[in-house]
Amino acid sequence: MYLMGVIPGPSKLSLVQINHALSLLVFELMEFWKGVYYTQTHKFPGGQFSKGVMILLVSDMLAARQVAGFGSVTSMFFCTFCLLTIQDIENLQKHTWPECMLHSHLECAQEWRNCQSKRDCEWLFKLHGICWSALLELPYWNPILYTVLDSMHAAFLGLFQTHCRKVWRIDVSVEGGDGSLLYTKKPVPHPLDSTLRQWLQLIQVNPRNLLEQLTADSTPKNALWHICV
């Protein structure tokens, strides 16, 4: 394990500032790319020639995009693997997604780096959603393939938490139980027995237009709630 450094808070660094910090890491990684000779190690008392690379960038979504030089998750190009725009975010046909290409990414990043003014940088970043990252100085590094969202942020603190708390309502704010009873914030008024009997018989008969009848505005929702319970 290698500690490169600790960046003080309380707010995150700007893109220019974080590139200064990354340049220190890139400088040492380039030495290992060429190869480093250790005069003595625990397993090799006579010395050992070693090479090393940094492949995966593992972090949360916000840090990954800033370090790798991508735009935010709400920008025009929200994905780090394809060129689908934010207007088409609901497109689930994977074969229609235009693929990100490394050579195009590098060209856009280098063009951003060569800008002569902050205004030009902002214009290019808005146009392509790509800016220069110091990690691109590593000849082997591919930001499209090597930028990985770690499972803790993406799953346990994101999808799993949302699914459990919002969908399954497993939360301290909700009264617990074995799941056999339904709880509502306000008590649902109990309809007449005759009304319950009427709708229960309709459900048992199961006519072709049952779904239309159950979802109609005139359907007593309180009767359906008590039937389901």
Explain how this protein is built.
This protein has 229 residues and is mainly alpha-helical. It folds into two domains: 15-165, no CATH class; 175-229, no CATH class. It has nine helices and four strands. The chain has helices at residues 15-34, 61-68, 102-113, 118-128, 143-146, 151-167, 193-205, 210-214, 221-228, and strands spanning 36-38, 48-50, 57-59, 147-149. The strands form two sheets. It has a two-stranded antiparallel ribbon with strand order 1-2. It has a two-stranded parallel ribbon with strand order 3-4. The protein starts with 14 loop residues before the first helix and ends with a helix. The mean pLDDT is 87.
In short:
The protein has 229 residues and is mainly alpha-helical. The chain is built from 9 helices and 4 strands; from the N terminus they run αβββααααβαααα. A two-stranded antiparallel sheet has the order 1-2.
Write down the Rg: 29 Å
Arithmetic mean of pLDDT: 87
- The chain-level structural class is mainly alpha
The count of DSSP E runs of length 2 or more, i.e. the number of strands, is 4
* Alpha plus pi helix count: 9
| Low-pLDDT segments | none
What does the oligomeric state look like here?
single chain
- Strand-residue proportion: 5-15%
Helical percentage:
40-55%
User: What is the 3D shape?
Assistant: elongated
Strand count, sense and barrel status of the largest sheet are: 2 strands, antiparallel
Question: Could you tell me how far the N terminus lies from the C terminus, measured between alpha carbons in angstroms?
Answer: 56 Å
Order of helices and strands: HEEEHHHHEHHHH
Task: Give me the side-by-side strand order of the main sheet.
Answer: 1-2
